[in-house]
């Protein structure tokens, strides 16, 4: 099979390696595609802790495909099932997954890309937020995740204020149900505009979905007293400072909405399958860029540089 191997900072090659054999309790997937996650960007840049070369297919963890072999003891899954799965070497034509980390896709999703892991993350973040009808929610960062959360929070009955540095992303947020949009270009101006949108009350819930210092600072400023600040951005490029005086003075509830338990991932993915399969959520327009495996570097660079119109890259086979 073909598999991507990252050999150094911003460098990769495609190798031909043996197709893996499933062990006990595992299935093998012939992959149709794998989403590109922003969490790949720090390893791709080559920090001191990164070790090269990577294992074939490594870094890819948003895969979907068709089951083509079963390991011993696997039940309830059949060869030919189209599935999303938690796998960890998805930048390859085949990957292995534990049988309990595989989720069958319904016929309603036939032919559609389904990067289950990030879709499941969005559902889990919403669950952690505790958003309900009548809440005022600011979402900072309208990329793939922020756009989905805009739709989900709106559907829950909340009034969403979407904040993004990109004009096209503000347009997208409005199409996903945002009641108001604000360009993220000046710290003080954003705060004043949110105050104007909320009659000075600020927001009951603020979701930071960028993963950088400034949006985290801004999120605290936009959260009202006894409000809830939800950290959904992936902060992996170094320590962060927080305004503990402000957090303490306002009595904020701070939720780090990340999961590491595979069972939680799978629960979110099941909710995502139900939402997309029923038509309640349509992520298809958010898959803006597609690349073959041989152009994985371009997919990663686009995820880093976010050219105009970019939301989510998929590597497809």
Commentary on this structure:
The chain is α/β, with parallel strands linked by helices. It has two domains: 2-113 and 287-316, Medium-chain alcohol dehydrogenases, catalytic domain (Quinone Oxidoreductase, Chain A, domain 1, Alpha-Beta Complex), CATH 3.90.180; 119-256, Rossmann fold. 30% of the residues lie in helices and 27% in strands. It has nine helices and 15 strands. It has helices spanning 41-45, 116-129, 144-155, 167-175, 187-197, 213-222, 244-250, 262-278, 296-305, and strands spanning 2-8, 11-16, 26-35, 63-70, 82-85, 94-98, 102-104, 136-140, 159-164, 180-183, 203-208, 223-231, 253-256, 289-292, 313-316. The strands form three sheets. Strands 3, 4, 5, 6, 7, 14 and 15 form a seven-stranded mixed beta sheet that branches. It has a six-stranded parallel beta sheet with strand order 10-9-8-11-12-13, sandwiched between helices. A two-stranded antiparallel ribbon has the order 1-2. The longest helix is centred in the last third of the chain and has 17 residues, at 262-278. It starts with a strand and ends with a strand. The model has no long low-confidence stretch (mean pLDDT 97). Keywords: Metal-binding, Oxidoreductase, Zinc. Its cofactor is Zn(2+). Belongs to the zinc-containing alcohol dehydrogenase family. This is Zinc-binding dehydrogenase. Residues 8-315 form the Enoyl reductase (ER) domain.
